[in-house]
Structure prediction request, 224 residues.
Amino acid sequence: LAKTTQPISMDSYEGQEVNITCSHNNIATNDYITWYQQFPSQGPRFIIQGYKTKVTNEVASLFIPADRKSSTLSLPRVSLSDTAVYYCLVGDTGRRALTFGSGTRLQVQP
Amino acid sequence: NAGVTQTPKFRVLKTGQSMTLLCAQDMNHEYMYWYRQDPGMGLRLIHYSVGEGTTAKGEVPDGYNVSRLKKQNFLLGLESAAPSQTSVYFCASTFARRGGTEAFFGQGTRLTVV
Prediction:
């Protein structure tokens, strides 16, 4: 899987929009970008996945520029319950090992 | 639909003891994975399987063995437990679709080796 770089931690306040950017300069043509969320003492949970441009679901949006060398997870109007670690994975996950980086620890304050 | 189930949820072992962690999935997924997560760290891949009867090493395979005799089950074995293997272990499974797929995780097994 392509190597990814994302911030170690971020802080925000309730009601704000949070954008977490992930760099993946050596992304391959067949690679998808997938984000997971992990709460303490739980396994990661799939949030969103995309290949190019913009993807939106009920939880988040994923923005991918044309060169696909980075991606941004956008969480609208965060709440305390969004405090978690967010992982960016890049790869053709159906065909290879699924490896995680260190993730971004998001702390939402009241 | 139970998803991914790990057994046991908690375990305390003495150094040198052996044990097997069981992961079971009911989604007919081809791929299964075992990870360990140490406090404050990300997940590290131990071993994975792309299908029944096949396994492969991940990032940190030493001290662990695995078996995938049935498609729905993936077993992780510790032959001689060491305190360095104290961790939370997560199992996951996915379909083997080209292009990207959603992984489903179990609730984790908290293992302490004393």
